[in-house]
Amino acid sequence: MKGLSLDVEKCSGCRACELACSMKHTGEYNPLNSRIHISIFHEKAFAIPVVCFQCNEPWCEKICPSGAIKTKTDEVKGIKVVEIAEDKCVGCKMCMLACPFGNMRFDGRHAVKCDLCEGDPECMRFCAKGALQFKEAEASVGRKWKSIAEKILASHYA
Amino acid sequence: MYGWAGKVLRINLTESKISIENLDAKVAKDFIGSRGLGAKFLLDELDPKTDPLSPENKLIFATGPLTGTLAPGGSRYTVVTKSPLTGAIANSNAGGHFPAELKFAGFDLIIFEGKAKKPVYLWIENEKVELRDATKLWGKTIPETEDLIRAETDEFAKIACIGPAGENLVRFANIMNDKGNAAGRSGVGAVMGSKNLKAVVVRGTKGVVVADKEGFRKAVLDVYKYLDNPNTKGFSALGTPLVTVLTQARGVLPTKNFQTGVFEGADKVYGEVFTDTLNVRGKMGVACFSCPVACHRYSRVTDAEFKGEGPGPEYETIGAFGPGCGVDNPSAIAKANIICNEMGMDTITCGFTIACAMELYEKGFLPQKDSGVALNFGNAKAMVDLVGKIAKREGFGDILAEGSYRLAEKYGHPELSMSVKKQEFACYDTRGLQGMAIEYATMNRGACHIRGEVQDIDLFGVYTWRVCTDKKLSFVDSLTTEDKPLLTKEVQDWFASFDSSGMCNFIFFLGVNEDALLALLNTGTGAHYGSAEEMLKCGERAFNAERLFNLKAGLTSNDDTLPKRMLEEPMPSGPVKGQVALLDKMLPEYYRLRGWDQQGIPTPEKMKDLGLG
Lengths: 158, 613
Prior knowledge:
The complex is a heterodimer of chains A (about 160) and B (about 625).
Chain A: E1 2-6, H1 16-26, E2 37-41, E3 46-50, H2 59-63, E4 69-74, E5 79-84, H3 94-98, E6 105-106, E7 111-112, H4 122-125, E8 132-136, H5 139-156
Antiparallel strand pairs in A: 1-8, 2-3, 4-5, 6-7
Chain B: E1 7-12, E2 17-22, H1 25-31, H2 34-45, E3 59-63, E4 77-82, E5 89-94, H3 98-104, E6 109-113, E7 120-125, E8 128-133, H4 142-152, E9 158-161, H5 164-167, E10 175-177, E11 181-183, H6 188-194, E12 197-203, H7 213-226, H8 230-238, H9 243-250, H10 271-277, E13 298-301, E14 308-311, H11 315-321, H12 330-343, H13 347-362, H14 368-371, H15 380-392, H16 397-400, H17 404-410, E15 419-420, E16 423-424, H18 434-442, H19 454-459, H20 466-469, H21 484-501, H22 505-509, H23 514-525, H24 532-553, H25 564-568, H26 583-594, H27 604-610
Parallel strand pairs in B: 1-6, 7-12
Antiparallel strand pairs in B: 1-2, 3-4, 3-6, 4-5, 7-8, 9-10, 9-12, 10-11, 13-14, 15-16
Helix pairs in contact in B: 1-2, 2-21, 2-24, 7-23, 11-13, 12-15, 13-17, 18-21, 18-26, 21-24, 21-26
């Protein structure tokens, strides 16, 4: 199953992903409507993106009293998405309380969250630095091993 | 309206009166926004003879129609006012995250009038706008001010503010936003200080709507494609400091107040030195809002003598405090930059004012009893000490706070100020760049390197602009004069166009051309600019509006000149040894191409053509 992978080493904090997401889902450029969010730490020259992790055991799904949140797997597109059925959502906002990461938002009528754009994430398309990638979660593990190994190597042969 | 928010916020500080006006659609289209629209409002509303530091001056914050959109580099706003440094129009442009937030609050422009009785800041929460007491913020540095205001407003508020330099009316004080972005030049911060306005604080929760969503998206993706080139990669990795190696190689790196164009310690202040030793994330840049390039740096200096941390330094800062002052110590340069950013001062004017003082001192025109120290070139400690003193107007700093022209004039040698219209040169010697000679001489805000970068064409190989493709130019020689009047005129109008759009200059110097901006403007605003020519005419209109303001303020063609050193003293060493700036050969032709008479005044036909009548 593919998902959005976030590489904090590469994020420059431009927030193009927020703009792209808000346009795709709400028809206007407004970072507040985005389902992905970048926290920028100017003094550390660092920026950290956060977006729904499509958890295996979603707390939002567990707590939803109206059964509006369900995990759906699309074998063809190779994605697993924690989805909100808008017609079932009663707007109680329990899911917002339950999500530890702030990835559940409320648009005034019902809860909204990242839906992976049906397997073609718009945010990733505008991530110039490649901090956002859409791939198998396991695929980044190998690269991380190598990256850590290279750092250790560099510290020994400086 | 699409692109534009359609609203102008007017603040009368004398009467604490706040009003909201509609933006006229035709005026918006004709002047695009930001720099152009700011010039239009200033020309219409301000008597150009006004004393810049009097309550009668106006201070305009102007975003563009593409600010706050996904247009790459759509992060900018321009501060337009009458400059206390030059007496001409000031238009200082900055990126970061504040300008987009202003747009999200629903405003294209803010116009400040009058003077508050005591220090205030403006707090904007969408249409809820109020002036708040800033008495306890007076005297605070830029980072302190931001932190204190955020604590009493909204933790996500974006802030533009002045530091002690602006409060003390240093003639080159700037307005900083997001702690590290500067509306840097021409002393716009002193105007803000003269109005007792400490900060503008914004939290905007509305969006920006574009006319043709799919078309706009495609235009953005096209720009992403154009930006996929080696220049962008290099620029992302090193930021503007990559320029030092180029200007040194060309022999145009201002050294010791422009006495020569090659610096013996240049390799100690190349871009790589900063990324490898001082920049926090090495070759990883920090981005302004909506920018795929990310050229900003953040530095941490550990050297005990110059300890500190903050954003930058950029190339111009490195050039001014480094080679300009004969200093080859990156830590000292970074420290001077940090102080400027914290106190809110233009690093270019600050650096070259100190460089001018050093030359006056070494030549015996400036006595040590005035300077207080042996102010030789290369004295890094004295340089850094003076930066802080200038901001506070302490001792000799009080004289330097007036800028290099007034300093050199005071000591009887105004020709040693490397300035045009009393604004200091940026870090390019004109003797090896004839395009820059005419650019410095004619730019409406005084010497300026980023309002008509003819040098980009040959220095960075930017042959993708229509000014090159239409004329099939594949090589521009920086030493020839025949081609420069036309190139300068066209490139200035082109820059005035995109400066007015809300996008960043750098996107275009990385190869993006007129057609790309036209596509973004048309799909973004729906205003139907019929062709690139029509769009560029808006830039020309803005440029001429600025010129008209200056002429009415009392400037003349005599102000379109360069210091004697550039015109008469051949470059003493390096690759362009023997060259001078051949301004006389170029200026008459430039005036003619502009549709100006030989006194530099736009002809009635030109005025009519541009609708400036």
